[in-house]
Design brief:
Layout: E1 2-7, H1 10-22, E2 27-32, E3 42-43, H2 51-60, E4 65-68, H3 71-75, H4 78-84, E5 89-90, H5 94-101, H6 103-113, E6 120-123, H7 126-134, E7 140-144, E8 153-156, H8 159-171, E9 182-186, E10 191-199, E11 204-206, E12 211-212, E13 215-217, E14 221-224, E15 229-232, H9 239-259, E16 266-274, E17 280-286, H10 293-297, E18 301-303, H11 305-314, E19 322-323, E20 327-334, E21 358-362, E22 365-366, E23 373-374, E24 378-386, H12 389-402, H13 416-423
């Protein structure tokens, strides 16, 4: 079997690691990959934005399956290009990827499908958006409609904060074209949950649910980031709740996408708010594996992932996967200055051994000069798997303390809500 993983972050390292674990003899490629992935796969120095070369490489190497990690090449049509060349591809078409690439489109889909989501309005004119805020209850949420690397949603406690956010997005173009359209929506109370659903466009197979930690600081304070850590599974995500998510959220969305000629195959990621009464509300959809949740979820799959991805890519019936009964905690180590102005180039010192059950996934590293260095905002993700959540949390923390680079930023409280639940 020959598999190509497209991407260069911690998510793609985790995907490659999981595929290698299931198929030790498979031929794996990654484009462009990173120093961590280099130990598992042959790296192809092709940027994720170079759709021509990626497509040509998949054909040239006779790849049996391409797994596309990042959202940008999906939104730009990489999956369409590959399928046109007869290459089996896990990831939605550009039309399907619009569920993430346009929050305004996603809201329209949810409204038409009857999927529970916060009331909203979309704007392309700053003055109109500001006038809407004047009439909106506090708190409220302002979102850049386009792709903003997971940082385009801002919870605003006051109208003044919302207006300042709109000025940044629409007036100052903080997120470029992604903020040309904004979505303003009501604030939802509850607890967040990330649900990954592998789908062939008709049926879904839900992977272990996770909870992400978006805020930079411990206790969920500070600016939004791409994610500072995650854990899985989540104790309140019962089989009954996940069945309800499938019935009320995932299946209606897939049906509405099919009606619109945008049949979605691949990984549909539902970012949910679980209300105090236990009902699921959709905050957003993503069209691919989430980061850093993937680093927490995939180590809990004991087998069958490759077959599941292949079946979804081919539109076949979805086989089950074998799940571990253990717990997983992933902690992100970020660069100094993250998320606004991360400093790059810091030399990284890794320990000779890590605690039992710990796997290190590279997110933003390079080794061009023979020294491992920080090359991105999120540098490394440290995943610990253990029989209990508490043990996994302790092992992840311990391993983070053993990794050294100047200005290292991380949270020692990943899974703090789960810890409180267990204490109660």
């Amino acid at each position: 079997m020959k598999i190509l993983v497209v991407g260069s972050g911690g998510r793609e390292h985790a995907i490659t690691w999981a595929l290698r674990r299931e198929h030790p003899d498979a031929t794996l490629y990654a484009a462009p990959g990173n120093p961590g992935i280099a130990a598992l796969a042959t790296l192809l120095p092709i940027p994720v934005a170079d759709l021509d070369r990626l497509t040509a490489a998949a054909v040239e190497h006779g790849v049996d399956l391409v797994v596309i990690g990042p959202e940008v090449p999906l939104a730009e049509g990489l999956a369409d290009r590959l399928r046109a060349e007869g290459v089996t591809t896990f990831g939605p078409s550009a039309a399907g990827a619009a569920i993430e690439a346009s929050k305004a489109f996603a809201k329209d889909v949810m409204t038409a499908a009857g999927v529970p989501t916060a009331p909203y309005a979309s704007f392309t004119d700053l003055a109109a958006a500001l006038a809407h805020v004047d009439r909106h209850a506090e708190p409220l949420v302002v979102k850049a409609s386009g792709l903003a690397a997971g940082k385009g949603a801002v919870v605003c406690m006051t109208r003044a904060e919302a207006k300042a956010t709109l000025q940044e997005m629409m007036g100052d173009h903080r997120f470029g074209a992604a903020g040309d359209t904004v979505v303003i929506e009501g604030f939802l109370l509850g607890e967040e949950l990330s649900v990954f659903a592998v789908t062939n466009g008709r049926e879904v197979r839900i992977l272990p649910p996770a909870q992400d930690h978006k805020r930079l600081g411990e206790g969920d304070v500070g600016p939004n980031t791409g994610g500072m850590g995650a854990y899985a599974p989540v104790s309140f995500a019962t089989p009954a709740l996940l069945e309800r998510v499938e019935r009320e959220v995932l299946v209606p969305t897939l049906r509405e996408m099919e009606k619109r000629g945008a049949t979605f195959t691949g990984l549909l990621y539902a970012g949910l708010m679980i209300a105090p009464d236990g009902s699921p509300w959709v905050i957003e959809f993503n069209c691919r594996f989430g980061d850093p949740e993937t680093q927490a979820v995939l180590p809990l799959i004991d087998g069958g992932l490759t077959e599941l991805l292949m079946a979804a890519a081919k539109g076949n019936s979805l086989p089950p996967v074998r799940l571990s009964a253990q717990a997983s905690v992933t902690t992100v180590l970020a660069a100094e200055g993250y998320p606004d102005a991360p400093k790059k180039g810091a030399a990284i010192t890794l320990p000779s051994t890590l605690p039992t059950g710990v796997t290190l996934f590279h997110a933003g590293t390079s080794d061009a000069d023979g020294t491992l260095r920080a090359s991105g905002g999120r540098v490394l993700t440290v995943t610990a798997v253990a029989p209990t959540f508490r043990e996994a949390q302790a092992r992840s923390r311990a391993a983070c303390g053993m990794i050294v680079f100047p200005g290292k930023v991380w949270r020692g409280d990943i899974g703090w809500r789960e810890a409180k639940r267990q204490e109660a």
